[in-house]
Amino acid sequence: MKKKTKNENLDQMKSRISGAFKRMAKNVWLSADLRAFLKENAPLLGLTGQITTLDLIEFLSQKKIVTEETIVMPLGKEVTRYITETGNVYELALTLKRHAYLCHYTAMFLHGLTDNIPKTIYSNTELKPSNNYNSNELKQDAIDRAFANNMRQSNQIAKYKNLEIYLLNSKSVDQVGVKDFDFNGVKLRVTDIERTLIDITVRPNYAGGTEEVLNAYKAAKNKVSVNRLLATLKKLDYTYPYHQSIGFYLERAGYDESVLDLIEKIEIKYNFYLTYKIKDKDYSARWKLFFPRGL
Q: What does the DSSP assignment read for 233-285?
């Protein structure tokens, strides 16, 4: 009897391989993932030991079970991902750094807090745990100096087709306010609505600016728990008094006074700024907050 070639063996197994892929509920694969898949499933699928990971990749690409995609990482290194027809760019972004989760404008979009479809994707990875207790003492002149400058922006940006993927880093907070999010039947790690509102308050440039942030607060009005938001803010342990910015946004978005009272229970000691380098300022006496005129 004639011995089967690698390709004949793979061709006969196409439906089994496709079925095995679908059962994995995984749409974006690294070559290491495919190597592990082959090692674990080859005996079950009836594949011979002569078939290598490269053979499998070539077969999967030819049969259009996966598409090979290239991402350019921040320092110019190219990495490859293999995506099934049901894969999406959010899953792809989460494979670029270990333990990453989606945040800022991307989380806004996924939670329905913006009508825009951002062409930039934001992911965050927490740094290794350390003594993160915030003991910094604030001084008004230090706040004034910091917010007179432009917001620091990450240069860790990956490129995929016409998209930019920001690979942000933050201190370790045990992924507070991060949850599994169902997107078209796919599980994504995403900041919840409360954490998202905090993140975009802190870094409005990663959310389309202060006007977009205000619109997000308006859209979240019947979705957000302000008590949970404040609990999350406390755990994040910021040096700056971002509760003043949050109070301002809640007021401008038309939240009830009972909600605003929760914010005002926290001491309002310093003059603060809604964003960085405001050219034409207005001032809210209630929140001791400078903000862009006309907002």
A: HHHHT-SS-HHHHHHHHHHHTT--HHHHHHHHTS---S-EESSSS-SSEEEET
DSSP label of 80:
E
Q: Which two tokens stand for residue 104?
A: 């800022």
Spell out the residues 6+ positions from residue 138 whose beta carbon is closer than 8 angstroms to its own.
239, 240, 241, 270
Q: How many Å separate Cα 212 from the centre of its chain? A: 17
Q: What is the pLDDT of residues 228-239, one digit of tens each?
A: 999 999 999 999
pLDDT at 214: 99
Report how far residue 51's alpha carbon sits from residue 38's, in angstroms, rounded to the nearest whole number: 9
User: Where are the domains positioned within the chain?
Assistant: 6-71, 88-292
212-252 pLDDT, tens digit per residue, is 999 999 999 999 999 999 999 999 999 999 999 999 999 99
Q: Within a 10 A sphere around the Cβ of 285, how many other Cβ atoms?
A: 6
The domain defined by 88-292 carries CATH number 3.30.460 = yes
Q: What are phi and psi of 191, to 5 degrees?
A: -65, 140
Mean pLDDT of the chain: 92
